[in-house]
Amino acid sequence: MTDPLDTTSDRRPGGRTARVRAQVLDAVRAELAEGGHEGLTMEGVAARAGVHRATVYRRWRDVGGLLVDVIDAAGEIDWRPPDTGSLRGDLTALNREIQESLVVQPSFALALMAASFHSEQAARAQTRLWADRYAQCEILVERATERGELPLPHTDARSLLIAATAPLYHQLVLLRADPDPQLPERAAEAAVLAAGAGAFSVRREESA
């Protein structure tokens, strides 16, 4: 999935309220990317957004509220999973999007992930967003099954997707290693081979 945390929303309805929200959330993204969670303040966001701080406090109440709304806004974009015609191609494209979002400097995606460890509200919102993105990407596995690329009829889509994308986060977030341009395809291929061998198959009673 394109990283669900590294995006701005194109779906901004008209009206002053929507414009203020867009300005404030853009300011939160910029503040997080530049200074991390430690530097994120209501006053700093208000100043960058060009709105009165009372407006920010009234609508978002605290930094946790700002983080939650930024994450919710990421879920509002019209993002669609890749459709390259093969599971390997789809997973490779997905991994390339993830890698790009994690290596860009400054990385808003990394900053927001770190911030979620300091805010229970943000952590819950981030969990909801990840669950939604994985659910969206299950179509990749469904299409692959229809094409005969996977064992029929029961493949655990969530497990396959996690296996395909996890190496990117392990390499770039946990190990903080330099990006490997070959990793997106290698991780995708490994997951496809494992799926083809039945590693993510579920028994009928489990899938019922």
Number of strands: 0
Helix/sheet category: mainly alpha
Broad shape:
elongated
Number of spatially distinct domains: 2
Instruction: Specify the CATH class of the largest domain.
Output: Mainly Alpha
Strand content: under 5%
Number of helices: 10
Distance between the termini: 27 Å
Query: What's the CATH topology name of the largest domain?
Result: Tetracycline Repressor, domain 2
- Integer-rounded radius of gyration: 19 Å
Low-confidence stretches: 4-13
Task: Tell me the CATH architecture of the largest domain.
Answer: Orthogonal Bundle
Name the helix and strand elements from N-terminus to C-terminus, one letter apiece.
HHHHHHHHHH
Note the main sheet: none
Mean pLDDT: 89
Helix content: 55-70%
The CATH superfamily of the largest domain turns out to be Tetracycline Repressor, domain 2
Descriptive key words:
Arc Repressor Mutant, subunit A, 208 residues, Tetracycline Repressor, domain 2, 2 domains, 66% helix, 0% strand, mainly alpha, 10 helices
Provide an overview of this structure:
The model is unreliable at 4-13 (pLDDT under 50). The chain has 208 residues and is mainly alpha-helical. Helix 1 (16-35) crosses helix 2, helix 1 crosses helix 4 and helix 5 (87-103) runs antiparallel to helix 9. The chain folds into 2 domains: 16-74, Homeodomain-like (Arc Repressor Mutant, subunit A, Orthogonal Bundle); 87-207, Tetracycline Repressor, domain 2 (Orthogonal Bundle). The chain is elongated. The chain contains 10 helices and no strands.
